[in-house]
Amino acid sequence: MKVEKAASHLEALGNTTRLEVYRRLVRAGTAGLPVGQLQLKLKLPASTLSHHCRRLVETGLVSSRN
Prior knowledge:
The chain is mostly helical. It has 4 helices and no strands. It has helices at 3-13, 16-28, 35-42, 46-58. 8% of the residues are buried.
């Protein structure tokens, strides 16, 4: 893994909310977790969750599907 990519991943996971989102998604496995369900579990406003999910997608830590 390139140092820049590793640093980007670590920076993204350095936020406690993003770390919790990532942890729950990893635990959900390949089946994933609907964003609405994630929002209810974390008790976050939709806009806040969207912001954090976007950052995780941008860094390549998670992906989204419709």
